[in-house]
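Before a colleague's protein record goes any further, I have to sign it off. Alongside the sequence sits a line of tokens, each denoting a local backbone shape. I want your independent view on whether this chain really folds as the tokens say. Where you disagree with what is written, explain briefly why. This is what I was given:
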Amino acid sequence: MDRRKTSMESYTENDDLKHIFVKPENIWKPELMVDNALVDLGLIKNDELMLRVKYTGNVEWEPPVLFVTHCKVDITYYPYDTQRCAVELLSWSYTIDEVILDHLFEEVSLEDFKEHGEWHMLYTEIDDKNLTEHLPDGTLRVYPQINFRVILERRAGFYNLNVMMPITVTSLMVVLVFIVPLHSGEKISYILTEFLALLVLLTIVVPPTSITVSILGIYLGVVLILAALGILVTVLIMYLFHKEGAPKKDSLIMTMTICLARMLCWNTSCVKSAGEETPTMRFSMGSYNFEDAGYINGNLENFSNDTKDGTKVVNKIKSERDENEITWKFVATVFDRFCFYLFLISTILMNLSFVFALSEGGKSPKH
């Protein structure tokens, strides 16, 4: 105590007193509050913290307070989103004619900032903004306000592993239903399992808010619709596969089957009917294997009567064999393979477009 007293006396005598400490109740302070606070909304105060008064007349007051504020979150590009949140400090009692709020720096001090596991701080900014109140008599009151704003970017590493990868893999697995054998009896149960998995992902990975619509939610909705369409197509294909007989020769289904088979580079004369144990026809230009195919209707004596080189007989046998092989089972097989390529291309393009839209759209913060 003696040393402190001696030191203070020395400052006073030599006119070197730089600052003093004053209790809060002995000095005037502006009534400040956090406008967007969620917890303990009221004036900023601390009756136990001393104020530092400099010899120039400046008063420093740094009350340690924990603010819980609300922030409007835009999840459009979740999980590659960037958010802008602020602490809105204002004087509710004094107007701009009575109190002026100003900031010493252009950015928020990050001396005590600690890294967060989910969010990465890009930058900070401070802007002045006045709050206008309309009184019943028609007059206006303008109050000073300062916004301390932080721009945060979500760390996407965790979400790439736990959100994007399961969704992408599950969407691609929907396509595999069309390469499950038709006679296995597991196609319907497989596509139903994939549909339910996507439905569960839709309910747990998208943040629960309706202010903005997430592109990820739209993507999951489209994949879910694609899976539902896959269920419908699979049921129709299984119905055709278990249907007896063959389609009419000049029917639309026959024309579509032949066109799709040609598109898939299938030669109907070389494809054994799905599920049948009949031997496969083998054709080459100008030759025919009678032993394997067994000449339709079993009459080989007409071979030498029709033509010497056997071309007419080969064409006749090929035509009859083609008509006999296009059964409903064959139709189901062709449509099943065509749907595989169609769904595969659609799913890959959809995944690439949605991932690109999410990653590119969430890079720049919205002002």
Summary: The mean pLDDT is 76. The chain has nine helices and eleven strands. Residues 178 and 340 are 5 Å apart (CA to CA).
